[in-house]
Amino acid sequence: MLENVKHVVLVLSGKGGVGKSSVSVQLALTLARAGKKVGVLDIDLTGPNIPRMFNVEEEKVHQAPGGWIPVKVGDLGSAGDGVGSIECMSLGFLLRDRGDSVVWRGPKKTAMVRQFLTDVLWGDVDYLLVDTPPGTSDEHISLAEQLRSVSPDGAIVVTTPQAISTADVCKELNFCKKVGLDILGVIENMSGFVCPHCSTCTNIFSSGGGAVMAEQFGVDFFGAVPIDPAFNLMLERQKETTDEVGLLQRYGESKLFPVFEGITEKLLAKTEKAVANGSGNGEGG
Amino acid sequence: MVILKVPVASEDVPQPSGAAPKLVAPEPEHCPGPESQQAGKMDACAGCPNQQICATAPKGPDLDIPLIQARMATVAHKLLILSGKGGVGKSTFTTMLAYAFAQSPKTQVGVCDIDICGPSIPRMMGAENESIHSSSSGWSPVYVADNLGIMSIQFMLPNQDDAIIWRGPKKNGLIKQFLKDVEWGDLDFLLIDTPPGTSDEHLSINSYLKGSGVDGAVVVTTPQEVSLLDVRKEIDFCRKAGIKVLGIVENMSGFVCPNCEGESQIFHATTGGGRALATEMGIPFLGAVPLDPRIGIACDYGESFFDAYPESPACEGLMNIIKGLRGQVGLPPSQDGVEEMDES
Ligand SMILES: Nc1ncnc2c1ncn2[C@@H]1O[C@H](COP(=O)(O)OP(=O)(O)O)[C@@H](O)[C@H]1O
Ligand SMILES: Nc1ncnc2c1ncn2[C@@H]1O[C@H](COP(=O)(O)OP(=O)(O)O)[C@@H](O)[C@H]1O
Ligand code: SF4
Ligand SMILES: [Mg+2]
Ligand SMILES: [Mg+2]
Ligand SMILES: [Zn+2]
Questions:
Q1: Are the Cβ atoms of B259 and A133 closer than 8 angstroms?
Q2: Is A195 annotated as a binding residue?
Q3: CATH number at residue B239
Q4: CA-based nearest residue in chain A for residue B166
Q5: Ligand 1 atom 25: the closest Cα is on which residue?
Q6: Interface predicted TM-score (ipTM) of this complex, two decimals
Q7: Domain count of chain B?
Q8: 3-state secondary structure chain B
Q9: Which amino acid positions bind ATP, per UniProt (chain A) (predicted)?
Q10: pLDDT tens for each residue of A265-284
């Protein structure tokens, strides 16, 4: 399982809508800009958002002998030399209609998660990012169980600053501890919004909750990501833009890119070091 | 190369089912559900250690359903608050709706939080340190006002931050208890706050309440397509499950800077937002609530935003939504008609 994958990083949160998928996408873009080959596995079965965010909604997954071929994010464009690649897998690709609901109880979800972990023919992947649904239920239990044999690098836990969110995310941190999943770091997303008219920063969803939570749990804080409506628009407008500028280059101009460069640096420092010490997933597990 | 078939089939929404038999092993992946009519007889059951048990278990109706119906007989209106997407404000809206209904002392309101892994209602209502008491006739809800009682798994946790690492059947069992064992009493409204998605919790609440008459669901979304995408699925689920969609509420639409009053779109409605989705689906659009940092603060501190900022645009938006919603469930636009007369 996951023979060609060097590092496995889970993106988790106890709370929905905090930006797990957006963070997964931005980690993928930043890692690819740094020359890494990235895989993104979307195991949010009832709310798969990765295909839309990478503008590959129309793509279908193909079956080859031995498994499924993931979808390549094609329109990355060139952002200079040494650019990596992104491929992804999502239940979204398996639906007949994008509006179709997937109404599955636990056992079926468990089976799908297992299949996603065992049957996808990833190319050589440096980082496999696993985007997850909120909560601590079937998908998460299965994920933790299935991944035990490949010893994943750990989890990045996303929260928004307000207490309603950190309260649920604390549960997720406890889940990680229970199942023995390393917490690589906490990201506070949607931390403050700078008004484009007057440049005043308003903490629409409060601020600072993520850092406080990280401290409480004695885990690393990877950074605070501000609210940037332009990032959403950039993703949404991929379809309309016809110029040659690819997603990687466009993201390089985003206000959020420097923030994610910092976060990725911390991620790389932690995970590559682990490999040097021989405790990571290693070269092909 | 083969393009894969659709993994979704509408028969995934099971009909109201019987009680689950005691199993000797976990259900395998394609299990039709040990409580279902087909239990023990499907292809998936071949070789399953439970097959004997499932096949011979009485397939009569779930004996708990009449008990749920008895509890629910004293509840006039049952509303589900749903969304395919997380963090769009389901719990916030549930809370505000509850406070709004409960403004009239004659109206009895209950809130049942079936978000088992991410319960928010107790904190939003300032009751996170409460616990549940039980009497001979059942569990009593936690009352945050004389006429407003709530029930949530959060009240049952030894430590606030405990993770609830449960698979489906355990969640379903607790949801059933919330309906069957809680002394809801005479209620005008029972609001049911749900987790995002379309899975065990949603299937269960639907099958448990089917015989008791649910008014329908309010579907909450935010304006951007990533959210609408998931919300479409929720509406598709409602159709398959036979739940009436009372209307769509768009939350977090637009933000007015408190400093310069300039407006910004945080979650751009690139595809027309909740209103366009409502039109597309032929569902009433109930209204929109803007982003207001004070809503988040009120939620964090368990205060009623309604009482604190009655003049805010967010409150105004909410009042409009509530009016529309009351119409959808066949009630006059305001609590008892008296308030409207007072104003004139
Ligand atoms: N930093 C940010 N600034 C602006 N919008 C954001 C930001 N992070 C996330 N969003 C938007 O918020 C919504 C929810 O984020 P998403 O990644 O889908 O959350 P989750 O995967 O946790 O449910 C999406 O529409 C996303 O584009
Ligand atoms: N209109 C709004 N303006 C500002 N914050 C909001 C608004 N609606 C909800 N929130 C905040 O957003 C977060 C997510 O809302 P919540 O009700 O918990 O969503 P859900 O139950 O759908 O996961 C909460 O912290 C809540 O306080
Ligand atoms: S016998 Fe069939 S219904 Fe019963 S647990 Fe096994 S697969 Fe499920
Ligand atoms: Mg997501
Ligand atoms: Mg909620
Ligand atoms: Zn301003």
A1: no
A2: yes
A3: 3.40.50.300
A4: A137
A5: B226
A6: 0.93
A7: 1
A8: CEECCCCCCHHHCCCCCCCCCCCCCCCCCCCCCCCCCCCCCCHHHCCCCCHHHHHHCCCCCCCHHHHHHHHHCCEEEEEEEECCCCCCCHHHHHHHHHHHHHCCCCCCEEEEECCCCCCCHHHHCCCCCCCCEEECCEEECEEEECCEEEECHHHHCCCCCCCCCCCHHHHHHHHHHHHHCECCCCEEEEEEECCCCCCHHHHHHHHHHHHHCCCEEEEEECCCHHHHHHHHHHHHHHHHHCCCEEEEEEEEEEEECCCCCCEECCCCCCCCHHHHHHHHHCCCEEEEEEECHHHHHHHHHCCCHHHHCCCCHHHHHHHHHHHHHHHHCCCCCCCCCHHHHHHC
A9: 14-21
A10: 999 999 997 666 655 454 44
